[in-house]
Amino acid sequence: MRIRTGAALALALWGSAVQAGITARYASPLGSRPLIVETGDAGDFRIGFEGDDSRLLRSEGRDYLIVAEDGEVQIVPLADLAAVLLRTPLSDTALRDFDKDLDPADRRTLKAVPTGVSRAGTRSVAGQAGIAYRVGYTIDGQPHAETVIASQAEAMRPLADAWRRAGEAFAVVVGAPPFRRAYPGLDRLSVLIAQITGQGALLDAPMLATLRTIRLDATPTEDRFDLPGPPLGQAELEDMIRTAGDR
Questions:
Q1: Global confidence as pTM
Q2: What pLDDT score was predicted for residue 8?
Q3: For residues 128 and 2, what is the distance between their CA atoms, to the nearest angstrom?
Q4: In the chain, at which residue ranges do the beta strands (DSSP E only) sit?
Q5: Average pLDDT of the chain?
């Protein structure tokens, strides 16, 4: 967790330890292309698939979902999206489209009930040492477990922060009341994802990503974490959500 209080000198010393950027490339069951996580100064990061302009972006202390589709780019402030989702109903078409996109594996995962996290030794992935965790859950009463390997190394802290915030972003989206009513398992799944992404800098989580290569001395360009345009306001977000799937 980022230090928010304390002497200015302590803050400066901590900040200087994480100024070098990180570029981590993962294989992921969520897409056919590599998943790339990049970090920069002051907690900035971006997470997205190679060659895809859609991404999760943290820029100047705020988190955004960048949605690129059909040549159009929408910049969604995550905090505003959370507020709007609490008060704005999704269209029936959007819910039907969401349901249509669920495959049997997705529907099975929605039944997962988290049962706890325990340490399971140490392992290395892609040359990086990490701690193994057993993330337990049940499906239809049957026990299952996801073995997650994460690094707690100080040099990996920016990567850990990016993954933790990715878990929080997932919770914001699936926490929308219409989704929770239609799929009660989403709340439990959010807990499970948070348990996976909250263990540190992810090295291996079969449900999400497995590290292939990492650079701890990357030097991203100055504009790498800039917004590609003006973000949507809350009124625009409300309109987008109300008409989702109807366009």
A1: 0.83
A2: 37
A3: 22
A4: 21-27, 35-39, 45-49, 55-59, 62-69, 72-77, 113-125, 128-139, 142-151, 201-205, 209-218
A5: 85
